[in-house]
Amino acid sequence: ISSLFQGKKGIIWVGHSNWEVSKVIQDDKIRIEKVIFGKNRLERNINTLFEDKARNVWIGTNGVGIVKIQGATRYIITTSSGLVHNQINCILEDKDGQIWIATSEGISVLKNPNQEVYNKSSFVNLTIENGLQSNNIKGLTLLPNGETWIATMDAGITLFTPAGRYPDLISNKVQKNSFGTFQHLTQTEGI
From 26, 97, 147, 165, which residue has the greatest number of CB atoms within 10 Å? Predict the structure, then answer.
């Protein structure tokens, strides 16, 4: 088992390291169902699972991007669709309904997750070129005030404050640009 997530209806989504996804449904009794894809496999490990407010399930893989399950429809979202990278480490939804995707090469923010066709204009991609301390993003925590904590594999954590807001400064390693303010914290600051 490589990932586990409880959805809003109480369904437990299980990502397997053998490329499969199952769900544990708890009604009168517990039953397990395999989620069927074209060949019944995604050809890569499942790194993360997430369910958004609209009850769409997002499956992040280790190299083939994302599968979005919306009812009976499956959408495949990859670098060809505008993702910054196909190795997905974390998926979350912010208070505005945007989907934040942590990858091994940066962050992709999907501005309108309800569209049926995804392309490069669907995403805002954040990398070291526009404020991140590292592209190898392992986790995200979205705060109710719109700020985002970003966990990296090799450069500590970053607090991102969107443009138009004025953050409390907690670090002397600060970058500002049109996206917002990036404050970087490493072992030097006690992380």
Answer: 147
Q: What is the pLDDT of residues 54-81, one digit of tens each?
A: 999 999 999 989 999 898 888 889 999 9
Phi, psi of 79 (to 5 degrees): -60, -30
Strand order in the sheet with 88-93: 88-93, 99-103, 106-110, 123-126
Q: Kindly state the helix (H) or strand (E) to which residue 142 belongs, with its residue range.
A: strand 137-142
Please say whether the beta carbons of 108 and 123 come within 8 A.
yes
**By C-alpha distance, which of 62, 180, 100 is closest to 132?**
180
Residues belonging to the chain: 191
The position carrying tokens 């705060």 is 143
DSSP-derived letter for residue 87 is B
Q: What is the pLDDT of residues 78-105, one digit of tens each?
A: 999 999 999 999 999 999 999 999 999 9
In 3D space, the residue among 108, 71, 117 whose CA is nearest the CA of residue 88 turns out to be 108
Longest dimension (CA), the chain: 56
